[in-house]
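It is worth pausing here to work through a concrete case rather than discussing structure prediction in the abstract. The textbook approach is simple: state the sequence, then state the predicted structure, then interpret. We follow exactly that order.
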Amino acid sequence: MQNVLSLPKILAMYKCTYNHHKGRFWHVTDFHYDHTYFAEQLSCNDDVPAPGPYGDYWCDSPWALVQSTVDFMAAKSSALTDVDFVIWTGDTVAHISDADTSLDTNLAILRNVTAALESALPNTPVYASLGNHDFFPSGQAEAQESEIYRAVGDLWTDWISSHSQVQGFQEGGFYATSVPNAPNLRLLALNTNLYYTANKLTADMADPAGQFSWIETQLKEARAAGQKVIITGHVPAGLLTPDLVDWFYPGHKKAFLQILFDYSDVIVATHFGHDHHDGFKVLQREDGSGAVSQFTAPSVTPWRARFTTPAGEQTGAPHNPGVRVVEFDRDTGEHIDYHQYFINLTDTNVQNKANWAKLYSFQEAYDVPDMSVGSIKAVYARVKDGEGEQYTRRFCRFSLVSALDKPCEERVRGEIYCGGLLYDKAQADSCVQDYLKRVNSTWLVTAELSLMLLGVFLFVVGYLSF
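Step two, the predicted structure:
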């Protein structure tokens, strides 16, 4: 008699095979540890007479928040069992003026957080990048060998592992590495601070530190070897959404994106920090070709920004600390889902205990099968067609790492939609205006129809009464 497997057994076998090929990695970013939080409060943007034990929305992170984040990652990794690595995308130093810090102080902070990660996750490699605030003076990333590159290269030698890549990092702050359990995958940890508009050292350079040439060589080698590539770094090339802020110098942005477009068949995803907000978008040519996904993870710091715009002084909304874990296919590198975790800072301070909890998963929140370019485009297509209000509302809420509904005005929704598909600020601004016209036009048609129906109703009522 032929032995026929039952459906439950087939599904169990499939799940076993699938799990064997599925890996995970953490993405943590923007710790912004403020060693003065309980004293001078040098990072705080307002008076904080009673600083909470785990932080305050006006300030950068106290050590308790940094340690709590790392401890949660370690505990969750033990429960998941298949975490292969961590990406740590910079800005470990607080928002403190250059007058009140130094390179030695910044390096001490980097050593402290590195030691915390090494202690909590001793068998998990961390692929780290520097952020603009890690440099001294702040934002001034040099395009050549420097003291910070040498010191941090030595500090991260065991994680980078390759002597030649450590040497490369010490000359420009970037490196490539293989990924554990994924032989067909490599990771590029970039120094995008070289292209940041606050960096006065590189404004007139065509290819700071030769990183563009190096990226293209790495991608060309990966393509020839049949490998896929994950790109990480601190400052993202895409527009901040909402708000549509451009972080890159125009020439650097054009060169960087051209490389991504040309090798979109090799790049499975890009991951950045810097924004402090949760977000995702597609970087693509105007005709939609060469598309690459960009994910920005929310910060650990809850710090609220204060900044000046043409409209006057602006204050950023309060947001909670967050960290995420990404699921990926070890064979193909394809990204499957991510799970965003957070703490409610207010409750945490009241309870004097950090209760990390899942905020959402990408698949569940946006009704998509994976994290691919196609899935992201599908989300924005729904938004364009007027069916996506629930998704923009979720985007607004998750952007602030909140389980509570947050305001999401029409302009903000337009910026989410346009910034999610367009990398050029002028085009995105124009897109927002078109979006608002379309929304207002729809509202007027709906209002006119409602008035017409009301008139018909009143006429019928009057006729029947007569």
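Step three, interpretation. The chain has a mean pLDDT of 91. The chain is about 40% helix and 15% strand.
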